[in-house]
Structure formats: C-alpha cells, structure tokens
Specification:
This protein is an all-alpha fold and 498 residues long. The chain has helices at residues 5-30, 34-39, 46-57, 60-73, 78-82, 84-105, 111-119, 122-156, 166-214, 218-229, 231-234, 242-253, 260-263, 275-289, 291-306, 318-326, 329-367, 374-400, 404-425, 434-453, 464-482, 490-497. The chain has a single domain, classed as Sodium/glucose cotransporter (Up-down Bundle), CATH 1.20.1730. The chain is built from 22 helices and no strands. The N and C termini lie far apart (57 Å).
Length: 498
C-alpha cells in the first residue's frame, strides 16, 4: 500500500474536488432566494447545524495553522483550542435563543440585520457590515492560504507536479471554491460540513494514534525530546509566556461568541429547542477533532529534533508533511479530503457573510433598502471577495511570511473585538445604546488594524486582538452607562427577556 501512497492521496483529493462541484450543482437547485443563499431558509436540522458549527470553527485555521503554531512555539497555542469548548457554551447561553427568535420576528438574514434591529439604527448595522467585510478578508485569506499550502504539499510530493508553485495551487483551489460557493451558497457549505465533521471526528482520533506511533517513545518520548531541546516550549504557557497565553485564552474563549460565521449558523435551525442537541454535538466534535491540532505539532517538532525528519520549510507544513509521510495512505487521503472539505465549507461560510454585508447590509444602511435581485449580486460579490482575498493571502505569505494561524488569529481578533460587546453583551443588556455600539466597533477597528499595520508590539507578548477587545468592551459599557437608557421596541424587548 505504501507504494500507492501518492495515487491514493491524490485520488481522495480529486474525488473530493469532484464532489464539491456536484454538491454545488445540487445546492443550486435548492437556492431560489437570498434567504436560501445566506441562511439556508432557516430550515436545517440539529445534526446538520451542530456539525456545521464546530466544522466552521476548526477549519484550515485549526488543521493547518494549529499544528504549525504548536511546532513553532510549543504549548502556547493550546490555549486557543482548549478554551473554545467553553466558548461554545458561552456563545449558546448568550445568543442562541435570542438570535433565532429575532431572525423570525424581524425576518433577518444577516448579523448586521440583527444589530440594526436590536439598536433601531441603520448606522450600527452598516458599521457591523464594515467589520464583517474587513474581518472576512483576513479570515478568508487564512482558508485560501491553508488550502493552497496543503495542495502544494500534496502535488509537490509527486513526480508529475514536482516543484509546483503556491500561486498555481491557489488558482486551482480557488477556482473550485468559486464554483462551489457561487452555485450552492450556504446550503452547499453546511451539507459539506455534515460529511466533513463526521470524518474529522473519526479521523482526528486515528491521526492522534498515528502521531503517537510515529515518534520514538510515543507522546512521552516526544515530550522528553522537546524538554531537552527547549524546556520552555513544552511548559504550560509555551514560548509565548503567561500573559500571551492568557490573552489567547480570553480572545478564543469569550471571543468565540463574536464570530459571525458561527453566530449566523444559529439562525439556520428549524426549531429553538434543537439547541439542546446542537450545543453538546458541537462541543464533542470540536474536542475530538482538536486533538489533531496538538498531537501533530508536537510530534513533528520532536521528529525534526531527533533527526528523523528534515526541518520544515514553514511551520504550516507540519500537518501536510505528517499526513503524507507517517499516516496510513488511506487515512491520509481521507483526512486530506476532509481537510479540504473543512477549508472549503468554512471559506464558503465567510464568502456568504461577506457577500451579504456588501450587497444586503451596506445598501440598507446607506440607501434604506437592499439591492434588487440580491441573489445575482450575491454571486458577483462572492467572486470578487474570493479574488481579493486570494491576492491578500499571497501578499501576506510572500511579503512577510505570515503563518496561516497568525493570519487567522488577526481575523478572529477583528471579529471578537467588534462583535462580542455589540452582539453578545448587547443582546443581553437592554441599557446598551446604538452610540455605544458604533463607538465600540470603530475603536476596535482603529486599534486592531493600527496594531497590525504598524507592527506595534503589545506588552508581555499579548495578542493585539485581545487588547482591542478589552478596549471596545470597556468603551461599550461606559458609554452605555453614561447615556440615558432608551426604550426598546416591544418585540425586541420580549426577545431579550427570554
């Protein structure tokens, strides 16, 4: 079977690409309106939504960027992943019922719609649309860079495609993504999530076993190797240190309730009581699949230190090289296909919320009504966003060597800083005002992008997104307390009291 490793892996990936095209064509027949394209008509079952929620969180960011971060800085990034399970509980407790009720009461199809309704402010909805567009570019670039990196690793290891460039791989993968996203919308994404989530729950466990068997002495041996080479990396806070890890702890724990690709999926289930199934399913799926994040990064670093594997060209190569070299060929092929499914469906989710912000939310904020023929314009916006994000991803890689996970952390931080106070706190606190919401959004963008663009070093290695989230939350609460409370519309008040 080892002799057929490359054909098996290529066959699995090629089969997945074909499946993507078929799913897109199938979903296109079910997509008749903007509501179908953006929120699947609010009619999905709990199994589909549950797997879609965790799959959209743990995608290229987790399966490519996560092992790369562990390889690069030891246990620091584990603080991203272990707190996200608690983050799901926080998100569902604060938002699940209210978001779904408001989606029905006000017939909303996007997060800016929810914000505009909650604060009775088109401006607040418009600013939320701006946040989503900017954050989508960073996070979508993460998915495209991860997809291109994996495809380059797979094709570059064969005689037929040896030396293939990252740009070529980006063109191939984004061409499939564009077709898949334009034809199927969010319906294609969530049904791919259903298959991908099931695959990654099973294969995540199998990859952990393969990782333990790949290094001398298993995980104990890997830990001893890292302890001897760099004791700080294997300590609880890794090379980033205590405060840096705590920053990630809060940004990825609490900040999960500020991720629009996850929040939007809370509007898609048929019944509110389905959340009793969706939440535990999401947590269980994420917890199992996330073990791949930790195990592969540690084992690949140990293998390199032991001299059993060549040093990686980039930390982001950790997962692709491990699967290509150490996993059973069939397992590697299935995981690679599942990985592409995770990246493709998550990218489609981001394209949906980004396209909605461009053609639905911004026009409503600026001219009081959305564009005519929204479904057609949504598909045009999807293509434009994909092309722009691809250029941004390649620029980030070639200009600064940006890692997938760090690019993803920036997108995550952009969303968390702007959306958590306005949505998660705002939907649970009737005193919150529209002026406070707008101020929090603007401050979060100014601080987050200034820190990123000007390379401002944060104290104690803390992430800029965490600092921006603290500032926006403080501003949101203070301004709301200073202002006189406003009477909310009766339907919004009742939804918030549930």
């Amino acid at each position: 079977m080892e002799a057929l490793r490359e054909p098996i892996i290529l066959g699995c990936v090629a089969a997945y690409m074909v499946i993507c095209i078929l799913v897109g064509l199938w979903a296109m027949k079910k997509t008749h309106s903007a509501a179908d394209f953006f929120v699947a008509g609010k009619g999905l079952g709990p199994m589909v939504v549950g797997l879609a929620v965790f799959s959209s969180t743990l995608s290229g960011f987790g399966f490519v960027g996560g092992p790369g971060l562990v390889y690069n800085m030891g246990m620091s990034s584990v603080w991203m992943v272990i707190v996200s399970t608690a983050g799901y509980a926080i998100c569902f407790f604060m938002l699940a019922k209210r978001i779904r009720i408001m989606a029905d009461v006000r017939d909303t199809i996007s997060l800016p719609d929810i914000v505009a309704s909650r604060y009775s402010s088109k401006s607040a909805g418009g600013w939320m649309a701006v946040v989503i567009i900017l954050g989508v570019l960073g996070y979508l670039a993460t998915q495209i860079l991860a997809m291109s990196t994996v495809l380059q690793s797979i094709l570059g290891s064969t005689e037929w495609f040896e030396g293939i460039g990252l740009i070529t791989c980006a063109v191939i993968s984004t061409s499939v993504l564009i077709f898949y996203a334009v034809t199927g919308g969010i319906i294609a994404s969530v049904y791919t999530d259903l298959v991908q989530g099931a695959i990654m729950m099973v294969c995540g466990l199998l990859v952990v076993i393969a990782a333990a068997m790949a290094v001398d002495g298993g995980f104990s041996g890997a830990s001893e190797t890292l302890l001897t080479d760099d004791a700080e990396a294997i300590m609880p806070f890794g090379s980033l240190g205590l405060f840096g890890s705590i920053g990630w702890f809060f940004m990825f724990g609490v900040g999960l309730a500020g991720q629009p690709h996850l929040i939007t999926k809370l509007m898609m289930n048929r019944k509110i009581r389905d959340n009793r199934i969706i939440l535990p399913l999401s947590i269980a799926g994420y917890a199992v699949a996330a073990m791949l994040w930790i195990s592969v990064g540690l084992v690949m670093r140990a293998l390199v230190i032991q001299g059993n594997h060549d040093p990686l060209g980039l930390p982001d190569d950790a997962a692709p090289e491990f699967l290509a070299a150490y996993a059973n060929p069939i397992l590697a092929g299935v995981v690679f296909a599942g990985l592409f499914a995770a990246i493709m469906s998550t990218a489609d989710g981001f394209l949906n919320i980004g396209a909605a912000a461009i053609i639905h939310d911004l026009p409503k904020a600026l001219r009081g009504k959305p564009l005519k023929n929204e479904l057609w314009w949504a598909r045009i916006a999807t293509v434009a966003l994909t092309v722009f994000a691809t250029v941004f991803a390649l620029y980030a890689r070639y200009n600064s060597g940006e890692l997938v996970a760090l690019l993803g952390a920036f997108g995550w931080g952009t969303f968390a800083a702007a959306i958590f106070p306005v949505v998660a706190i705002g939907l649970n606190w009737q005193r919150a005002t529209s002026e406070a919401a707008i101020a929090a959004i603007i401050l979060s963008l100014v601080f987050n992008f200034s820190i990123k663009l000007f390379g401002i070093a944060m104290p104690f290695g803390m992430d800029g997104g965490f600092i921006s989230m603290l500032i926006s939350c403080i501003a949101f609460i203070v301004i709301s307390y200073v202002q006189k409370p406003k009477l909310l519309p009766a339907d919004i008040r009742k939804a918030m009291e549930i």
